[in-house]
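Run log // design_07
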C-alpha cells in the first residue's frame, strides 16, 4: 500500500472537484483523499466527508466551518475541520499531501496554488485565473521547487498529450486551441444584450461552474486559455491559433514542421484530463465512455471573429500589454461576470467594463506577489467604480 498517493482537492464541491472524486473512487488502490476544501457549500462537503473520510476538511467561511464541524461531530467523524483561507495553503503544502487538485474558481486559487508549487507537489491545475495573474511567478516556483505541473483544462491537457517530447518544441509550428464558441455562436450581434444568466450558463457541450460557463459564452475563457498556454508551454502568443470547433470533440491540436497535426479527441468529460493527470505517466480508467466516431460523424472548424467575441480581443491585447494588464483583465472579468449573474449588468456590458479597467492598468509585469495583489485590488476597485457609475439601485441604467 506504500504507493497510494494522498490527494488534496482545493475546490472539492465544484464540478472539477466532484469529477476528481469520481475518478479517485475508481482507484482505491492508487489514491486516498487526504483533504477536501470548499468555501460555503456545507451540505456537499458534509456528504463528501462521509463518503471519502478525508483527514482534513477546510471551509474558507468560518461560520460554514463551524456548522460542518457540528454536523460531523454528531456522527463521530474523524475528519478535522479547519477554517480560513490560510488553511488552504496549509493543506496544499502539507507534508502528507502528494497531489493537489487546484480547482478553486478565480483569484482565490492563487495563494494555495503557489503554496502547492513551492512545496514541490504534483499540481493538477484546473484554476486558470491564477496562471493568468501570476504566470511568471507561478512557473518559476514550479521549476525552482521541482513541482510537477499537469494541466487539467481540457485544451492544455490535450496539447500536452499531443507533445510526445514536451521539452523539445523546435519542430512545433502551431498550437491549435479549440473552442466551442459557446451558446451564442450563431446569434446576431443585436440579440446579445438580451442574453439572460440562465442562457449563458447553459453550455452546449460541457457541464461546468457558473463563472467558467459565462466565460465560455463571452469567449473570455478562450482568452484566458491563450494566456495560460503561453505560460504552460513557454511559447509566444503568435504560436497559438484559436479554432472554433462547435462539436467539442477535438480538445486541441499541435501542428509540426513535417506537416503532421496531432489531435486529442474524446467525449467532452473532464474525467479524461483528470485521470490523465492523476495517472501520469500512465493512463488509468476514468469512467468516460469511449468516443463513438460514427456518432460524431463530422468535425467543423471556423475562424473566431473578434467583433462577435470582444473579450477574446481584450485578452490578446492584455497579454501583449504585460502582466499588470492580465491581472486587470482577470479581476475586471470576475467582477463583471458576478454582476451579470446578479442581473446588475447586461451580457454586452461585460467587455465594456473590462475595457475601461484595462485602460488604467500600467504596462510591465510585476515581479513579486505583493505587487500582483496590489494590481488585483486596484483593478477590482476600478471595476466596482464602473459598476457604481453605470448602475443604479443595483440595476443597469439603460441610458449609456
Ligand atoms: P465551480 O464554481 O463549480 O466550483 C468552484 C469551487 O471553488 C467550489 O468548491 C467552491 O466552493 C470553491 N470556491 C469558490 N470561491 C472560493 C473562495 N473564495 N475560496 C475558496 N474556495 C472557493 O467551478 P469549476 O469546478 O467549474 O471550476 C473550477 C476551476 O477550474 C475554475 O478556475 C475553472 O476556470 C477551471 N476549469 C473548469 C473546467 C470545468 O469543466 N468545470 C474546465 C477547465 C478549467 P463552494 O462550493 O463552497 O462555493
Ligand atoms: Mg478549457
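design_07 sequence
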Amino acid at each position: 500500500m506504500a504507493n497510494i498517493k494522498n490527494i488534496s482537492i482545493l475546490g472539492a464541491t465544484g464540478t472539477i472537484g466532484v469529477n476528481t472524486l469520481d475518478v479517485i473512487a475508481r482507484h482505491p488502490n492508487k489514491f486516498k483523499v487526504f483533504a477536501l476544501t470548499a468555501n460555503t457549500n456545507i451540505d456537499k462537503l458534509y456528504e463528501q466527508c462521509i463518503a471519502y473520510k478525508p483527514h482534513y476538511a477546510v471551509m474558507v467561511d468560518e461560520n460554514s466551518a463551524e456548522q460542518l464541524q457540528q454536523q460531523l461531530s454528531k456522527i463521530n467523524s474523524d475528519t478535522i475541520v479547519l477554517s480560513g483561507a490560510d488553511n488552504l495553503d496549509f493543506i496544499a503544502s502539507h507534508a502528507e499531501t502528494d497531489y493537489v487538485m487546484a480547482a478553486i474558481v478565480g483569484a482565490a486559487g492563487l495563494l494555495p496554488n503557489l503554496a502547492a508549487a513551492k512545496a514541490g507537489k504534483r499540481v493538477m491545475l484546473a484554476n486558470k485565473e491564477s496562471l493568468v495573474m501570476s504566470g511568471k511567478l507561478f512557473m518559476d516556483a514550479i521549476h525552482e521547487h521541482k513541482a510537477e505541473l499537469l494541466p487539467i483544462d481540457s485544451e492544455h491537457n490535450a496539447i500536452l498529450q499531443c507533445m510526445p517530447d514536451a521539452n523539445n518544441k523546435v519542430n512545433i509550428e502551431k498550437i491549435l486551441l479549440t473552442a466551442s464558441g459557446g451558446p451564442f455562436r450563431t446569434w446576431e450581434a443585436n440579440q446579445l444584450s438580451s442574453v439572460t444568466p440562465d442562457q449563458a450558463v447553459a453550455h452546449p457541450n460541457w457541464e461546468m461552474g457558473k463563472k467558467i460557463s459565462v466565460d465560455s459564452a463571452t469567449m473570455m475563457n478562450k482568452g484566458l486559455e491563450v494566456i495560460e498556454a503561453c505560460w504552460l508551454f513557454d511559447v509566444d502568443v503568435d504560436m497559438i491559433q484559436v479554432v472554433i470547433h462547435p462539436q467539442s470533440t477535438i480538445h486541441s491540436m499541435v501542428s509540426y514542421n513535417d506537416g503532421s497535426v496531432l489531435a486529442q479527441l474524446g467525449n467532452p468529460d473532464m474525467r479524461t484530463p483528470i485521470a490523465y493527470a492523476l495517472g501520469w505517466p500512465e493512463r488509468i480508467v476514468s469512467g468516460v465512455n469511449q468516443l463513438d466516431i460514427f456518432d460524431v460523424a463530422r468535425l467543423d472548424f471556423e475562424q473566431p471573429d473578434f467583433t462577435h467575441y470582444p473579450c477574446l480581443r481584450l485578452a490578446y491585447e492584455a497579454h501583449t500589454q504585460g502582466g499588470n494588464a492580465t491581472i486587470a483583465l482577470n479581476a475586471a472579468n470576475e467582477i463583471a461576470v458576478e454582476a451579470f449573474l446578479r442581473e446588475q449588468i447586461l451580457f454586452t456590458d461585460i467587455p465594456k467594463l473590462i475595457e475601461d479597467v484595462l485602460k488604467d492598468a500600467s504596462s510591465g509585469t510585476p515581479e513579486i506577489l505583493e505587487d500582483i495583489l496590489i494590481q488585483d485590488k486596484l483593478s477590482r476597485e476600478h471595476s466596482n467604480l464602473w459598476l457604481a457609475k453605470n448602475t443604479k439601485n443595483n440595476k443597469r441604467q439603460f441610458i449609456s
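The mean pLDDT is 96.
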